[in-house]
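Per reviewer request, we include the raw input and output of the structure prediction for the construct analysed in the revised manuscript.
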Amino acid sequence: MTFAEDLQCCLIFRSSHEASSQPEGRSPYNDLMPELPEVETIARGVNSHVRGDRIAEVWFASYRKLFKTPASGQAKGLAGRAVLAVHRTGKHIVCELGPAGGGPLADRIETSEAQWIVHLGMTGRLLVTTPDASLAPHTHARLRLSSGRELRFVDPRRFGRLEFRDLSRKAGFCAAGAEPLTITAEAFARLFHGRQTSIKAALLNQKLLSGVGNIYADESLFHAGIRPGRSCARLTRAELERLRLALKEVLEEAIRLGGSSVSDYVDADGERGLFQLEHCVYRRAGLPCHRCQTPIRRIVLAGRGTHYCPQCQR
């Protein structure tokens, strides 16, 4: 069955099982970090709203642990900077910044001189709004832009991190692992070759692949037909290629649908994603598999709840 056919099956079963596939309790499912599709969705949304704008004024709250760079240093570094682009790197959102000063727009500036780096943590949100919009509790940063918009960072659990980098003094931010959307078949196979750990644990290792978390590891392994507990070393080259393609397709479809809103995640406009409606195994323990009707199982691997179909995944 193709990935598109799998999604069609998910849509058929959504209405009858949507109510019964709610969280089994807050603890296992709500302490979640946004994964690659959620971060990509937010980065694209912020970029569409603020690219070419200029940071006119900066305000930070006083909670120190949020700041990898001291708040005073960030405020000084950000003020007056042109926003050249906003993009995702791994699970981080990176704002590329031009020089300070000049007019309100900076469309012609191409070389980044600084970066503002946002890690959302478990409950972080990066929102584009108007200055008169009500201020959400736990707002830790407000960047007022020359256009009249505001870029706000909100984080109730305060596990997010904010950093400013002057690129004349420090190299630009880069993720530790490979990019799953563009990695080649050869490079993907090399990542897992000979590793004795489970394939689920390896997919979650950010030093190997950047941005893949619990949701998309489970979903990709299902679409590839691979059990999450299998050792990497025992996977054939054909199975690894099937997994690479499934992972890419799942991530791209999740991005198209705005990510999975299973906890606090919303996009740059405050809207929830829709991919949680397409989950085939994640959070579906005890419910019938969309392919074969076998009940989905939940086990713990690498300290994480893991969902799979014992019939479809080998």
